[in-house]
Amino acid sequence: MASFSAVAYYIPYSSSFFPNKPPKFNNRRRNPVVKFTCEAKNGEQSPGKLDRRDVLLGLGGLYSTTSLSANPMALADPALPDFKDCIDATQPNKTLINCCPPAVSGINDYVPSATTVNTRISAQSVEVGSDYYNKYTEAIQKMKNLSPSDPRNFRQQANVHCAYCDGGYTLKGSPKLLYEIHNSWLFFPWHRWYVYFFEKICQKLIDDDTFTLPFWNWDAPQGMQIPSIYNSNVISPLYDCFRNPDHLPPTVINLEWSYGDVQVDPKIQIEYNLAIMYTQMITQSKTPNDFFGKAYRAGDDITTLDGAGTIEQTPHNHVHTWTGTAVDQSNPIDMGALYSAARDPIFFAHHANVDRMWTIWLNNLGGSNFTDKDWLNAYFIFYNEEAKPVRVRVKDCLDITKLGYQYEDVPIPWLDGSVKPKPRAKAKTLPSAPDPAQVFPTTLDKPISVIVKRPKKSGTGSSEEILIIEGIEYDKRNYVKFNVFINEDNVNASRPDNTEFLGSFSNLPHGHRMTVKTNKKFRISQVLEELGARDYDKVLVTLIPKSSPVKINGIKIEFDS
Ligand code: C2O
C-alpha cells in the first residue's frame, strides 16, 4: 500500500503577482490552509525498496550485452539514452529518488503494424459507472495491484517517465551529459510511445484489445476542467489526492496558469484559453522546429539547446502545474513536477491530448514531420504489455493507424479565426524605455521593459521577424515562468486574448541539478501587422516574472533563418 504523509499547504494569492488583473477578481488574499492525508490510497502498490543490484542490472545491465552497446557505430547521430547505468533521479526538493526500472530480460526491436484502429474518446464524454468507465478503472486498478517488481506496475510506469526526464540516464557516448526527453524534438514522439505502451498494458490487463485511453480535451470548452471520471470518489483508481483542491471541477482550467494567478469568470477564462490555443497552434507554430522543439543530437548538451516547442511550453507545462498541487513553488508534487507527474492517472489523458495536438497540426494546419534522420532514428526503450523491454524508433510512431488508434472527431473551436487574439490598443505611441544593452544581463525579479530595434531587411532571405529572449538561465529543478508582451504600454490592462500578449517561457521542475541556459523565440511579423506597427522601427518588449527569478542575458530581433 502506498503511504504518504499528511501534507499541509497554502497557495498564496496576490494580485500584484498577477499584473494583468482579470476582469473579475476573487477577493481573498489566500485560501485557507488545507490538510489532508494521502494514506493507503486506492490500493496502489509502491515499488518499495528494490534490491539495488537488481536495479543496476535493470535495462542497462542486460542492455550492455546487446549488439547496440557493443557497436560503437551505434553512437551515430541521434540523441540516445545510455542504459548501461540507470542512476538516481532528483526531486525538486533536491533529494534523490530511485526511478530505475526493475530487472528484466531481453530487448527486441518493435515495429507496430496494427490491423484495426480503435478510437480514443474524450474524457468528458465518459460517464462514471458506464461500461467504458468500469473497464478503465479496472485496468488502472489492476496496474496498481501488480507486484512492485513488475515493470507494468502503475508506479513503475510512472518511474519510466521519471527516469527518462529527471536524470536517470546519460546520453549515449557522452557519459557526462544527462539524457532528457523534454525540451527538444523528442518530446512528442517519446510521449506518444509512452502512452501507447501504457494503453497496451491496460488492454492486456483487462483482456480487451479494443480498449483505448481517453484524452483530456482541455482545448475545447466542454473539456476545460478536470474530467469528472478523475474526481468521482477518493477510492477510485483514477483519483489522485495530490491535485490542487482549488482546481477541482467545475473550476475552468487556465492554460497559461502561473502560481498565484487568481480565478477569473469561467466564460472569460474559456475565451482566454481558446485565444491561447490559437496563438500556440497557429500563430507561433509555423515550422516543425516551432511545433516539436529543437533538434537534440548525439553529444548535444540539452541544457544549452533552444529547447521546447510551442505546445510543450503552453499549454502542456501549465496543465501540469495547474493540476498538481504544491506545498509551494519549490516543492511541487504529482502533476506539478516531472518526476512524479505520471503518478496521477490524469497524466495519460493529458498526454493523449498533447498527442492529439500533433495529429491536428498535421491534418488540419498543414504541419509536417521532420525528415531529419536523427529524429527518425532516435530510439527509446519501453516495457510492453508482456513486461518485456522493446526498442522503438521515432520513425515507427508517425502513422498512428499503424499504432492502432485514432482520435474521436470532436469540435476544435480554436481553429476558427474568431477566437484569435485581438489588439487591446492598436498603433500607440511607444513609451520610452531603455535599450536592451543598458538592462541585460539582469535578474528578472521585477517587470522589465525595453525598446528593441528591428533589423533592416537586406537580400532575399525570410522576412519573418523573430523576437529572441537570449540566455535565459535557471536551475532545472525550479519552477520558472515569465510572460512576454509586445508594444503593451499598460500590462495591467492587457489580457491573455490580446495580441499584445505574446506568450510565456516556462520550466517544469525536473532533473539533476543543472543550470540551463536557453533562448525563447516568438514570431512577431504577423503580430506587429495586427497591432498596426508594421512600419515602426522599434518595438517595446515587456517581461513579467511569475516565478522565482531567472537571469536573462539579452533581447534581440532577427529574421527567421
Ligand atoms: Cu513528460 Cu507532461 O511530461
UniProtKB/TrEMBL annotation:
Cofactor(s) recorded in Swiss-Prot or TrEMBL: Cu(2+)
PROSITE patterns membership: TYROSINASE_1, TYROSINASE_2
Signal peptide (from-to): none
Keyword check for GTP-binding: no
Cofactor note: Binds 2 copper ions per subunit.
Residues that bind Cu cation A: H161, H182, H191
Tyrosinase copper-binding domain mapped to chain residues: 182-199, 344-355
Binding positions for Cu cation B per the UniProt entry: H316, H320, H351
Cross-link type 2'-(S-cysteinyl)-histidine (Cys-His), residue numbers: C165-H182
Protein's recorded name: Polyphenol oxidase
Provenance organism: Forsythia ovata
